[in-house]
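Session log. Operator J.P. requested a structure for one protein chain; no other inputs attached. Running the standard single-chain path with C-alpha cell output.
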Amino acid sequence: MAADRLERRKARTRAALVRAAQTFLADGRLTAPVLEITQVADVGMGSFYNHFASKEELFEAAVDDALEALGAYLDTLTVGMTDPVEKFTQSFRLTGRLFRAEPNLSRVFVNSAVAQAITTERGLAPRSLRDIEEAVRSGRFDVEDTELALALVAGTLTALGRVLLDRPDRNAEEAVDHTAARVLRALGVSVDEATQLVARPLPDTENVSAATVLITEA
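Structure written below.
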C-alpha cells in the first residue's frame, strides 16, 4: 500500500510539472527558469530533478504528451469514417492548420529534437501508421514500405510547420491542403482523388486549440 501511494504521488508530481510546462509553452515562455516552473506546479525543486534531468527534457515530455492528446482528439473527429485515406487526409490537414493556430507550441516541436516524437510509439505516428497500413491493405495506397511512408509523412509535416512559422504571410490553409494533396500523390492516390479529398469540409474546431487539448488532457 505504501509503495502504491508513493507511485501515485510520483505520478501526480510528474503530471503537475508537465501541465505547468505546457502552460509555459502555450504562452511562449520558453526561457522560464526551472524554479518558476516548479512554483507554478506547486512542487519542490528536488522533486523536479527526481523526474527530469533538465528543463529541455521536461519540455520534450510536455510536447510528447501534447501530441498524444492531439492524436486522441483527432481520433474523435474521425469516428464513423470507414475510409482510411479519408481519415489520414483529415488528420494531416487538421494537424497542419495547428502550426498557424498554435505557433508557440509548434515552434518548440519543429525546432528541437522533439520533432522526432512524431516517429515514436505515442502521439501522431502510430495513428498515421495505422491509417497508412489500412489504406495499403485495402488497395487505396500504393506503398511498399509503410515505415518509409510514415517517415515521408513525418518529414513533410515538420518541414511544412517550419515554412508556416517562418512565413506568416503565407496562406496556411492553402499551403496545408496543397501539401496534403502532394503527400497523397506520393502514396499512390490519383490527382483527381487527391484534389477531391483535400477539398472536403473539415470538422468545426474553432473553439478547440492544441493548447486547450493538451492542458485539459494532461
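Operator note: The chain has a mean pLDDT of 85.
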